[in-house]
Amino acid sequence: MSSNMEPSPAARVRRLSNSVHDAAIVRAAAELGLADAVGEEPTPVAEIAKQVGAEPKTLARLMRALVAYDIFEQVTPDSYRHSDMSRTMRSDAPGGLIHTLLTPADWGWVIWSKLADAVRAGKTLFPDNFGTDFFGYLKEHPEAQARMFRGMTSWSDAMNPKLVQALPLEDARTVADMGGGEGTLLRAILEQGPHLSGVWFDTEATLAVVDDELLSGPVGDRCAFVTGDYFNEVPFAADLYVFKLTLHMYEDDDAERILRNVAASARPGARIIIADPLLQDPPQSKFVPSMDLHMLLVMGGKERTEQDYADLFERSGLKFDGITPTGTDLHLAVARVPG
Ligand SMILES: C[S@@+](CC[C@H](N)C(=O)[O-])C[C@H]1O[C@@H](n2cnc3c(N)ncnc32)[C@H](O)[C@@H]1O
Predict the structure, then answer these.
(1) For burial by CB atoms within 10 Å, which of 2, 19, 78, 244 has the most?
(2) Which ligand 1 atom is at minimum distance from the Cα of 229?
(3) Is 258 within the bounds of a domain?
(4) Domain boundary residue among 37, 61, 92?
């Protein structure tokens, strides 16, 4: 395309402002479960509508819109079949993408609509909108909580093999997964060898969602399940503490408090690893700065630059060893307990 064919700057901004439509169209397909209702052979809209409980004429409009995004193929205006993209949205598709698509639930849409207000206020407005903080909300809405953990796990499962390769496991014996969630990262770590033992640490409420394979599978007898609050105390010692997609939920004062509690329990020389997206200036992707704003909106947290990590570890009394890329959406920020 020659340069005079490229969209004008104004057209590009206008297109971006409409991208909320894109996200809503994909979300509606996920919420309705359309990918499970469409077959490999042409499926009539009336039949899809019956299966998902939708009004047929309106569903036909949504199906046409999805085809414009290469999600489903239109055989006739009244019948559709799968495309490569729509197949990934099936509930039995490898990778469990559907769970990631369903993660944000209604709260995600509400908080993103308040971005300008949050930037004015310089803080999360989650409690102003929902009367409680994020984890309080999840406790009150078990369906949203289940979606959140399932979505986190399907994202994690795609990254775990590379994360495990990047972690410095050679000289570790006990690895603690801090805010371990469903625990599939810890399971993947423990599968690296029988010399490794694990500690899954999370809140009492989260114990209910732990992966069965970690609880009672072959590595289960090498894993301790400790519940608590890392703002109060970290009641065990490990050689390696991993915070995956957890420390970015907090601004620096809270993150420092957690890291100091880890350091108070840890053996000298123990390593602390934060696995979160790495902010760069100027930004290298849309994903990281938008995730940074997502953390602001959800919890008042943030993503960090390499310098931010150096500062955070220094103020927490830890020695910063540097950043390790992982070939996933996450980088490892590595620190050591002095001594
Ligand atoms: C965003 S999830 C990340 C879960 C998991 N690390 C992953 O990557 O899938 C954050 C985790 O921190 C846990 N958490 C939140 N507050 C906590 C606290 N005060 N003490 C311990 N764990 C906490 C949550 O229950 C949740 O499992």
Answers:
(1) 244
(2) 20
(3) yes
(4) 92
* β-bridge pairing 197-202 and 174-178: parallel
Count CA atoms closer than 13 A to 254's CA, side-chain side.
12
How many C-beta neighbours within 10 Å does residue 311 have? 15
- Residue 191, domain CATH: 3.40.50.150
* Helix axes 56-68 and 45-52, enclosed angle (nearest 10): 110
- Domain CATH code at residue 59: 1.10.10.10
Does residue 106 lie within any of the structural domains? no
Residues 236-247: tens digit of each pLDDT: 999 999 999 999
- Which strand (E) or helix (H) includes residue 119? helix 115-121
305 part of a folded domain: yes
User: Cβ(206) to ligand 1 under 6 A?
Assistant: yes
User: pLDDT tens, 81-134?
Assistant: 999 999 999 999 998 999 999 988 789 999 999 999 999 999 999 999 999 999
The reply to whether 102 falls in a domain is no
Q: State in Å: Cα 177 to ligand 1 middle.
A: 10
**What is the residue range of 42's domain?**
3-92
Kindly give the pairing relationship between strand 174-178 and strand 223-227: unpaired
